[in-house]
Automatic annotation (TrEMBL):
PROSITE patterns: RIBOSOMAL_L1. CDD domains: Ribosomal_L1. The keyword RNA-binding applies. The gene is rpl1. Belongs to the universal ribosomal protein uL1 family. This is Large ribosomal subunit protein uL1c. It comes from Chaetoceros muelleri. One of its GO terms (cellular component) is large ribosomal subunit.
Length: 230
């Protein structure tokens, strides 16, 4: 068995076999266990009672956290020639039409989010195998297929992002950084929980949440009581 470091053992001792019933206490412990030499991301892992192989049990939506996640994103916009100036003025980092499609097809993907106007979607279909596995394929449901480029770019620049459950029904999401204030993390966490709850798939029967954990990118899992948000 691999020997655990003293740092790991010390942080795990603060969370092992404990289910936290108070947000403030959970966030306090989370920040105490953020002992890496860099600013760690703060993550939520929600295990849901869903089976995503069924269409009515899939979770894929967007959320805007009140304090963002502490990361700026590079946005690319795929649109026709008539909208290029509008997208550039709206704050897009990369804007293009057919030439951008060609770059993507060659594997040149140097952006974090791709927004497209509806007229360009048929041309993007052939790139599904390239963009899909990276979670970059635009879709109306995620808000990344739009005719309102300026507003959409602004929303995503402010911190709007898409999330979805993986094939096992677990949602993994970053909701801030370890140097955020306690209030910022609590408000982001609460907003995120509410978003997952409000977008409960229609096919869910009975209990929706199995369990919820939070952690820093290098810290131990902290289990939250499911009544903590009530």
């Amino acid at each position: 068995m691999r020997k655990r470091s003293r740092r790991y053992q010390a942080t795990q001792a603060k969370t092992k076999n404990i289910v936290f019933t108070n947000k403030e206490e959970a966030i306090n412990i989370l920040k105490e266990t953020a002992t890496a030499k860099f600013v760690e991301s703060v993550e939520l892992h929600a295990n849901l009672n869903i089976d995503p192989k069924y269409a009515d049990q899939q979770l894929r939506t967007t959320v805007t956290l009140p304090h963002g996640i502490g990361k700026s994103i590079k946005i690319a916009v795929l649109t026709n020639e008539n909208n290029i100036i509008e997208a550039q003025n709206g704050g897009a980092d990369i804007v293009g039409s057919n030439e951008l499609i060609e770059q993507i097809s060659q594997g040149n993907i140097n952006f974090d989010l791709l927004i497209a106007t509806p007229d360009m979607m048929p041309k993007l279909a052939k790139l599904g195998r390239v963009l899909g596995p990276k979670g970059l394929m635009p879709s109306p449901k995620s808000g990344t297929v739009t005719t309102n480029l300026v507003e959409t770019i602004a929303d995503f620049k402010k911190g709007k992002f898409e999330y979805k459950a993986d094939k096992t029904g677990v949602v993994h999401i970053s909701f801030g950084k370890s140097n955020f204030s306690d209030i910022q993390l609590i408000e982001n966490l609460t907003t995120l929980y509410q978003s997952i709850e409000q977008n409960r798939p229609s096919g869910v029967k009975g209990k929706y949440f199995k369990n919820i954990f939070i952690c820093t990118s290098m810290g131990p899992a902290i289990q939250l009581d499911l009544n903590i948000f009530n």
